[in-house]
Amino acid sequence: MIEAVGIIELTSIGIGIVAQDAMLKAGDVRVLLARTLCSGKYIVAVTGKVAEVTAAVDKGVAAIPAGLIDHCVIPKIHLAVFKALGQAVELHVPVSDAGDRMTPKALGVVETFSGASVLEAADVAAKAAQVTLIRLHLAMALGGKGYVMMTGSVMDVQAAVDAAAEIVRKKGLLVSAVTIPGPSRELLAEYL
C-alpha cells in the first residue's frame, strides 16, 4: 500500500532535476514519476511514509530559487487514481432488460492548470463520493493542464466535482469543473 505521494511541478527541466535530487537526498522515498510535461515543465512524484514524503517535498521546494508551479503531499492516495492515470478503467454499468449496457447517470470533469493539482483533485474526488474515475490526463498535449473525468450518480458526481474543484480553486489553478447529468452514450463509448 502506498502511504503517501508527494508531487512537485516546475517551470524548467533543469530546476526540476535539482528538485528531484534534493527530494531523493531528503529521506527514504522512491520516485514514482519524473518527466517532462508540455510547455517545458517538469514533474516529480515520490512515494514513501508520510513524514518522509513531506520532508522530501519540503526539501525539493527549498532547493529551487524559482520556478515552482505547484506541489502537494497526498496521504493514503486512493488507488483509483492510478487506474485512471493508466487509463485502465472499464466502466461496470448495469445491463438493461434488452441486454444493452446502460449509460452512467452523470459525467464529471475537473480541469486544472497543473499536473500536480489534477492528481490531488482526482484523489479528493475519489474519497468524497462513490464515483468511478475513468480518465486522468496529466499535462501532455494540453499545454501543461490536466483533467480528471468521473462517472456515477448525479448526486455523487456533483459532490466529487465540488470537492475536487474546491481543493484546486484554493490554489488558483482551477480551469473548469462540470457535471453532466445523463451524458450521451456516444460521449462515453470508449469506456463502455
Describe the protein in words:
The protein is α+β, with helices and mostly antiparallel strands and 192 residues long. Helix content is 33%, strand content 31%. It contains 5 helices and 8 strands, in the order βαββαβαβαββαβ. The chain has helices spanning 13-26, 50-62, 80-85, 115-128, 154-169; strands at 4-10, 30-37, 41-48, 68-75, 106-112, 132-138, 146-152, 174-181. Helix 1 crosses helix 2 and helix 4 (115-128) packs antiparallel against helix 5 (154-169). The longest helix is centred in the C-terminal third of the chain and has 16 residues, at 154-169. The mean pLDDT is 86.
CATH superfamily membership of the largest domain: BMC (bacterial microcompartment) domain
- How much of the polypeptide forms β-strand, as a percent range? 25-35%
Tell me the total number of β-strands.
8
CATH class bucket of the largest domain: Alpha Beta
Gyration radius, in Å: 17 Å
Low-confidence regions: none
CATH architecture of the largest domain: 2-Layer Sandwich
Q: Any idea how many domains?
A: 2
- The mean pLDDT is 86
Regarding quaternary structure, what we see is: single chain
Strand order, main sheet: write it out. Answer: 2-3-1-4
- The run of helices and strands is EHEEHEHEHEEHE
Q: What structural class do the secondary elements suggest?
A: alpha+beta
Number of helices: 5
Write down the overall geometry.
elongated
CATH topology value of the largest domain: Alpha-Beta Plaits
**Sheet with the most strands?**
4 strands, antiparallel
Q: Which percent bin holds the helix content? A: 25-40%
